[in-house]
Amino acid sequence: MAGMDAHGGRTSSRALRAVVVVAAVGLIGSVLMAIAHAGVQIPLFSALGPGGGAAIPPAAAGFTVGAILYLVALVGLARRRPWAWALGLVVFALTLTSAAVPFRGVGSIAGILVGGIGLALLLARPVRSSLLSREATS
Prior knowledge:
The chain is an all-alpha fold. The chain has one domain. Helices cover about 70% and strands about 0% of the residues. The chain contains six helices and no strands. The protein has helices at about 10-35, 45-50, 55-80, 85-100, 105-125, 125-130. Helix 1 (about 10-35) packs antiparallel against helix 3, helix 1 packs across helix 6 (about 125-130) and helix 3 runs antiparallel to helix 4. It is elongated. It starts with 9 loop residues before the first helix and ends in a 6-residue tail after the last helix.
């Protein structure tokens, strides 16, 4: 059938693209939050944290680590690497958990959405089979 791939058709391709987009949003958000928590004034982002724009080095370090993890997962997902599925689950689960506990308002809502959507997409059969079925061929 034209336009179909070996892993369930266009649905898996679209779902995989969607999870790559969500990972990119997580990466961009983590980078901006790392910069904002480093004390650099970024409109909107600096006001989201409890420090009100003050430097909070532990939070900046945490968001930096998150950005690195998102970057690695994003590259792996975009290249359809089987290991990216497990890394993506970990990164999105960490995002969801750290955003929810303790809850900090709008910033937490954004993290919960990114983490939750990313997890849902990775756990969906089209994405899971698209990434993991390549283990046999990679």
